[in-house]
Amino acid sequence: AGCGSSKTGTASAIAVDVQTKAKEIVTPYEGRPGAFPVTEKLSSPVPAGTRIAYIDNGNALVSLIFRLMQPAAAELGIDLYAVRAGTSASGVQAAFSTVVQQRPDAVINTAIDPALWDNQRRQLIAAKIPIVSLGTVAAASNGLVQPNGAAAFERQGRLQAAWLVANNDKSFEAVLYEHNELAYAAAVKKGFESELEELCPDCVVRVVQIPITEIGNKAPERIVSDLQAHPDTRGIVFQSSAAATGLPAKLKVAGLKDVQIVGANPLPTNLQYLKDKQSTVELGTDLNTLAWTAMDTAARLIVGQKLQENVDNGDALVHQFLRPEDITFDPTRGFSAYPDVADRFRALWNR
Amino acid sequence: MTSEQRRPLVRVDQLTKYFGNTCALDRVDLTVHAGEVLAVVGHNGSGKSTLVKLLAGFHTPDGGTIGLQGEAGPETELRFIHQDLGLVGSLSTVENLGLGSTSDGPPWRRLRKMAERLQADQLVAQFGVDFDVDALVQELSPAEQTIVAIARALRGWNEERDVVLVLDEPTAALHGAEVDRLMAVVRRVAERGAGVLFISHRLDEVLGVADTVVALRNGAVVGNLPCSETDYAGLVELVAGGVVEELQRRPAERGDVVLRVNALQGGVIRDFDVTVHAGEIVGVAGILGSGRDELCATIFGGRRRTRGTVRLRDNDLASGDLRQSIRRGAAFVPGDRHQHGAVMTMTATENLASVRVPGVEGRWRRVRKSHESREVAEWFAACGVVPARPEMQLSQFSGGNQQKVVLAKWLRTHPNLLLLEEPTQGVDVGAKAVIHQLIVRTANQGAAVLVASSEAKELAQLCDRVLVLADGVVVDEVAGQELTEARILHASVPA
Amino acid sequence: MPANSTGQTQRGWHGLLHSLAFHNISAVYIWVAMVVLFSLLVPETFPTVDTVRIVLADQALTAILAIGLVLPLAAGAFDLSIGSQLGLAAIVVAWMLSVQDLGLWISVLGTLAVGAAVGLINGLLIVKAKISSFITTLGMSSIILAGISWISHDAQILDLGADFQEIATHPIVGVPLSVYVMVVLAVCVWYVLDNTHLGRAVYATGGNAEAARLSGVRTGLVVVSCLVSCSLLASVAGILLSSSLATGDPTIGPGYMLPAFAAAFLGSTQFRNGRFNVLGTVVAVYVLATGVKGLQLAGAPVWIPELFNGVALLVAVAVNRRQGSARRARSARAATRVAAERAV
Amino acid sequence: MPANSTGQTQRGWHGLLHSLAFHNISAVYIWVAMVVLFSLLVPETFPTVDTVRIVLADQALTAILAIGLVLPLAAGAFDLSIGSQLGLAAIVVAWMLSVQDLGLWISVLGTLAVGAAVGLINGLLIVKAKISSFITTLGMSSIILAGISWISHDAQILDLGADFQEIATHPIVGVPLSVYVMVVLAVCVWYVLDNTHLGRAVYATGGNAEAARLSGVRTGLVVVSCLVSCSLLASVAGILLSSSLATGDPTIGPGYMLPAFAAAFLGSTQFRNGRFNVLGTVVAVYVLATGVKGLQLAGAPVWIPELFNGVALLVAVAVNRRQGSARRARSARAATRVAAERAV
Ligand SMILES: Nc1ncnc2c1ncn2[C@@H]1O[C@H](COP(=O)(O)OP(=O)(O)OP(=O)(O)O)[C@@H](O)[C@H]1O
Ligand SMILES: Nc1ncnc2c1ncn2[C@@H]1O[C@H](COP(=O)(O)OP(=O)(O)OP(=O)(O)O)[C@@H](O)[C@H]1O
Ligand SMILES: [Mg+2]
Ligand SMILES: [Mg+2]
Questions:
Q1: Transmembrane residues, as ranges (chains C, D) (predicted)?
Q2: What percentage of chain A reaches a pLDDT higher than 70?
Q3: pLDDT band at residue B72 under the 50/70/90 scheme
Q4: Which pLDDT band, with edges at 50, 70 and 90, does A1 fall under?
Q5: What is the Cα–Cα distance from D206 to C283, expressed in whole angstroms?
Q6: D275 in B contact zone (CB under 8 Å)
Q7: Which of D208, D209, C244, D34 is nearest to A120 (CA)?
Q8: Which of A327, B26, C199, C295 could lock C193 by a disulfide, CB 3.0 to 4.6 Å apart?
């Protein structure tokens, strides 16, 4: 989906004021994280014996969040347990049916599309069991609480576009590798395209679909081919850096060096790549804070407290641009913008 | 033969084998000596193949022992030709000949492919035939496969080793001249000091080649005597447990023309015409490669015709449309039971009832199972299939009994035209007479019968006239007083 | 004839004993053991009507797919494309309903027609082009996945309408309609396979196609019809899936393939001495699902259900093999060998 | 013997012609056609050394896996667990290196040992417990996936060390080491299968296990060793994968299974008249990869490569079948009575 191939090859300079504007957008997130998402105190403690179910579909990110939530659950005295959903839709449904039966006090879902468990969602809502859903963009009418929803994803796209403009002198060609299968793809794409159009109308944007099933095996090959076929590409933007797993080795074989890689939602592997300077920048999302936020949100729903506006709007996500020098932490644990997240929440929870 | 020469090579002692409740072998004793051809005879399902498979280590015995140690010498080496030949169809002749031989060093040694091929050519040439040794064995005819199996058993044999050759019905698919050659080889092997254990239902072969005969009945030994002390009738009695009345067939009165084959061509067959009347039984003889083993399939429509017409009563049988052929009353018993005749993984009942006969189905096209089992029981009784357990998988029946089921499957359709290839292969003398009677009965009910057989004796007994094929054309027709075994054999061997 | 009737009774008695023998229905015994075990372990949630209802409903689609798979397997053909066919039907029906706005009935029938066409192509490639079923369906599944991606642009299709959702989810006695659909289809396939000549023809084709052909079975037709029926069942499952999800999802098909194969193969070791059969298959689906459900309710670690699936499959089959007499073991191996050969 | 030597020459000449016949190496012809086509379509990017290098490197793992798969397939056994075995090795080696800190060599050897053990279990279940290979490996793949999940806690494992990364990626003449590993393994497996008694025993076991056993082949041993070798090769692929990703990823194994099967089956239609063979398999891997690469470079829509994979598989095999049967029909007039058309 090239927006006018006539623009290719004729790179025009990016105006200084535009660059300044772009830098203004980017700078708050460079070297330091966005604002801490939760500020209001929890009104009353969670009743003893509270149980929260977590649906784990075996995806690396989903499992990581589960592990990050465990200390938060322990802090709140909540019994957090995982239910494994298989890779198929029936596995997901079976897992959610199990949860419906177990009648926990709340359910947390990460990234499993609500469309796949619509019946169970309705049953849960009918049973007045609150559902916190991370990384999904279902309509508000669905009754899901989505702390990082469409707003956060749109911001991701906008930030990635702005970073490219801020770090280039001339108009350039950029490619966004997206996964249409994930419902939030549209939000990222919208943010990215609109921001780039606004800042750099001369820039060329391609949006290329990477089938989600190819992540981990064929995706890097597809990306390398795409880059070979479009040798003018300067910026590579990922909707989700998972697709870049294995990419550095392939880029090396293909001799592709002169590209900027702007990832997002990095997995530990991507952080490792970044640390090894095999990637340019990652728009890190603080999953640790997100995990605590999710537990906090669930707790508020359980005790019946009103939610903060940013949580309700789906904007409660901490972003930070990570450069190689920012990876001073152990990539395995994921990026954590607020190492004192536990203390902060403990304070909010009166503990 | 002096007593020192009677060196025992294999000693079977009180050997017993059960399959579930079936006692396949019941305390069998026998000894194979060096230089001796020991024949094992017995009715179908008497345990002969089971004995062979126990010797081969394929089954483990439930009792008794098999002694392979000679007095002092090294362990006796056993070589086999199994009833279903034990060849790997998806490998070529060369590869089959080299299979499992331990004489070529460790398994990771490089193959000497050229030498192997030359040796294969030579081994095959010993039998006076010549076929492509690189072709897959499954593409060879049953007779050619038999030759491969024999060649493999004899490969690399010499007098220094104690060898016992075990042959389980090796001649079932062979024609007179080839049988003679095989018998000569067997004798030669024995004369050079090997032992031979030979199983056959062709009792005249047994008399011709064996030194000693062991008879089994229901898994137990009922006779063990030198060949010189018995004769054909004696053997028949040992096998069948009584006198078998061999078929004495008088030429029946001819009915209308049932089958008219015109200028048939296809495969090896170059030009074939025949007219068969109702009640007539016409035999087809010929050596390997004469087209004998393709004729019935070509007429039936199962093998491609390139030219010619086949007319059954008032209808033409089209090539390739087997359902039509069957509906018009044709029936075809193929020579290769395992590949073409039956579905071994299904039960005997299912095989027997596998040809659809109009009018036996209930409402909703339901198979009426009680009706069916009654019918199957009748056929089991008529053909003498043992054990009488039609719900057993066909592969668990002995070879001869499988053959009976395949025959019954087609006789059940009350055909107008009965096309038979080796109808009594592997069937014991008693059952053979029964089957011959069934064939005659079918003919007498107005069917035309065409029998292709490698057994001249059978043709002479059963047929009104015999067509002799060579190279795809009829070269001779034998009928009336001339119709004798010798005459057929004579005519079918090319000048 | 009194003799005859005694024989009949004896056979009946023997048959009953045989049918109840452990080796013949090992899965059922394992199932009973699991039900008892989990009822003791998680007495509040496991032995409830809810559990029964949920397990029934959750597995209905897998069961339909596995039942469909029994047909080509019995006829000696693999169908590795069932998973993607399910996905295709799920997407096509959603596309027709939502993008093309064709109305409920046209969409459903149209989807079934597409399914049948795919099955027909599979069948013709196997029978006419003489490509082995394994390769044919492997290749077809790639083509189908490409088709799904093309139709859906890899995105979910929403807005399928409330009527359509009723198809799978409308409850009767608390059990959703898809379960009844599954039962009806199971009975149909069982009747054809076990009680008609056509069923015999199918098994004969699977056992020895050449011999079947020479007995007047139109083996080509049999194989083609089995593949078409299988595709139809996969399409039904796909339609029900879209209906129960209220979404056409482009990624969900392939995940259904292995469970269906596991069920069909496990099922073949039950009831019918190594023959692929419908009853065994349905039982297998629910035995595996019951175990997984129980383990989930008992709060086992996430990887335990997957482990259970594998171990249960192996144990059920191994027990069946060990207890069965040697002859049966051999024949079953022969059957798989045939299948393997035909695959080549 | 002059007569004999003439025969020999004739056979050699005939053999050469036969080897070059279209039906026998259809994939090679398709490959050449594609190279020409794409060189014309995308002349700047397709016919370059870079492309060669990239395609070689990209497919080395799939090729290793497919070569491994040839062994059990030739012996008549399916191994549906290769994908998950690859995943297991990838995780185990990462776990040993990073979590257990066992050092490069111990980790690699340990992983190979684990792989061999899995293969041994597969083999023993097939041979001793007499479970069909299809079920065994289906069940095992569930168990292995559970194991992966247990070892890795479903998380990626990092910090594998720079040395380890070199194993797969160290370039020699611009081509990474994994390609050379693949070539060496291919030659080894080819030698064993095509030039030794052992290889013949493998094919015999695959063709007719009972007959092979009756002719003195220790079929059990053959099947077990084939499965063990296959597992070893899958483990090598897994180690190389972790090395080239610089990560142990718990989710990637299963995606490699179908491509390996497609390559092995397509390969079986090349060079050796329907027999599974190494050369054909490697060629098949690269033919499919070349097409996909060309299409991607030519900017085809996302779903086209998948479509291509399916269509190429079917076309290559169908062409082989058609031409093959035509040739066989023609040679029917030959003096030998090779049952030309296997009509009966
Ligand atoms: N695998 C098996 N399972 C069950 N029963 C078997 C099996 N093999 C053989 N039998 C039974 O053992 C008995 C002896 O069979 P066997 O094959 O030894 O007979 P045979 O003497 O070779 O007969 P034929 O002359 O017909 O070949 C038969 O009743 C047969 O049904
Ligand atoms: N001998 C047989 N054994 C088992 N099944 C058979 C046999 N012959 C045919 N069939 C199968 O039964 C199915 C139904 O056949 P059906 O009798 O309806 O065909 P038909 O052409 O209508 O025959 P007819 O006109 O004789 O009734 C077909 O698919 C066919 O393959
Ligand atoms: Mg026998
Ligand atoms: Mg016999």
A1: 21-42, 54-73, 104-127, 134-152, 172-193, 221-246, 252-269, 276-296, 302-320
A2: 96
A3: low
A4: very low
A5: 32
A6: yes
A7: C244
A8: C199
What backbone torsions phi and psi does residue C107 show, to the nearest 5 degrees?
Answer: -60, -45
Is B400 close to ligand 1, i.e. is its CB under 6 Å away? yes
Ordered DSSP codes for A96-152: HHHHHHH--SEEEEES--GGGGHHHHHHHHHTT--EEEES----GGG--B-SB-HHH
Got the DSSP string for A210-274?
Answer: --GGGTTTTHHHHHHHHHHH-TTEEEEEESSGGGGTTHHHHHHHHT--S-EEEEES--HHHHHHH
Beta-bridge partner residues of B66:
B12
More confident: B495 or B141? B141
Smallest Cβ–Cβ distance between C310 and the set D143, D301, D310 belongs to D143
In total, chain D counts a number of residues equal to: 344
CB contact under 8 A, C57 and A98: no
**How far is ligand 2, taken at its centre, from the CA of residue C216, in Å?**
8
Please check the confidence at residue A329 and state whether its pLDDT lies above 50: yes
Q: What angle do CA D93, D94, D98 make, to 5 degrees?
A: 120
- Supply φ then ψ for residue A107, to 5 degrees: -125, 135
pLDDT tens-digit readout, C300-343 = 888 888 899 899 889 888 877 765 444 333 333 333 333 333 33
User: Which pLDDT score, from 0 to 100, does residue B250 have?
Assistant: 64
Helices (H) and strands (E) in chain A, counts: 12, 10
Residue B446 dihedral angles phi and psi, to the nearest 5°: 110, 10
Using a CB-CB cut-off of 8 Å, the residues of chain C touching D265 are 132, 134-135, 138
Place of tokens 């998948």: D306
Q: Where would I find the beta strands (DSSP E) of B187-233?
A: 195-199, 212-217, 220-226
Q: Which helix (H) or strand (E) holds A205?
A: strand A204-209
Residue C214 with chain D: CB contacts under 8 Å: 344
- The DSSP call for residue B339 is I
B52 and B245 Cβ atoms separated by less than 8 Å: no
pLDDT of residue B5: 57
DSSP sequence for B427-451 = --HHHHHHHHHHHHHHHHTT-EEEE
Structure tokens at C98: 């939502």
The Cα-based distances of C282 to B242, C15, C56, C61, C277 in angstroms read 54, 22, 11, 11, 9
Q: State both tokens at A124.
A: 């849960």
Do the bridges between strand B163-168 and strand B257-266 make them parallel or antiparallel, or are there none, so unpaired?
Answer: unpaired
Q: What DSSP designation does C254 have?
A: G
Residues of C in contact with D77 (CB under 8 A): 340
Measured in angstroms, how far is the CA atom of residue A328 from the centroid of ligand 4? Answer: 81
Instruction: Compute the distance between CA of residue B461 and CA of residue C269 in angstroms, rounded to an integer.
Output: 48
- Whether A343 contacts A75, CB under 8 Å: no
Residue D9 pLDDT: 52
Task: Label residue B484 left, alpha or beta by phi (over 0 means left) and psi (-120 to 50 means alpha).
Answer: beta
Return d(Cα C44, Cα B6) in angstroms, integer.
81
What's the pLDDT at D334? Answer: 29
All domains of chain B in start order, with CATH: 8-240 (3.40.50.300), 257-492 (3.40.50.300)
Q: What is the pLDDT of residues A251-297, one digit of tens each?
A: 888 888 889 999 998 888 899 899 988 899 999 988 889 999 999 99
Ligand in closest contact with the CA of B42: 1
The residue whose CA has the least distance to atom 18 of ligand 2 is C198
Assigned token pair, C170: 């409308």
Phi/psi of residue D227, each to 5°? Answer: -70, -35
Distances from the Cα of A89 to the Cαs of A294, B315, C94, D252, in angstroms?
24, 58, 16, 19
Position D14 scores a pLDDT of 66
Confidence check on the interface: ipTM exceeds 0.95, yes or no: no
Cα of B241 vs centre of ligand 3, distance in Å, is 18
